[in-house]
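Hello again, I could really use a second opinion on something today. I've been staring at a protein lately and its backbone has me curious. You're getting the sequence in one-letter code plus the fold written as tokens. I'd be grateful if you could look everything over and explain what you see. No rush at all, and the record is pasted right below:
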Amino acid sequence: MEKHFIAHLLENEAFKEKNYGKALEDTMLLLDHIMCSDEGIKELAEIYALCPKDEGDDGSPKKKSKDAMTAKNCGTTATVVIITPDEIICSNTGDSRTIMCQDGEAIQLSEDHRPEDEAETERINKAGVKVIG
């Protein structure tokens, strides 16, 4: 996400028209589609292979896989906020939450995306993917 988000957002027609909420939604969905493509899965596998290795039960490092099947089980979490002189527009994906502090008060800007929520389960199933774990 980090590598591609800004470029795709700036190219988005809704962004150019200052419809920032739609631009964020469009860009998040586009990146989701890209991540599920063969090229996206290959990139995810390369990134995953660079992650710190977990330890096995005996304390020895587990080998990280670089295969596409492992990458298909990866996902993302991201929060993006656009601040204009008149608006604060927030978009989030995955298990991420955005809050803002104003006068010492926490203000929730995003809604949680929890797979146990009916609408989120429907969205996940419609995308043809599943939550593991």
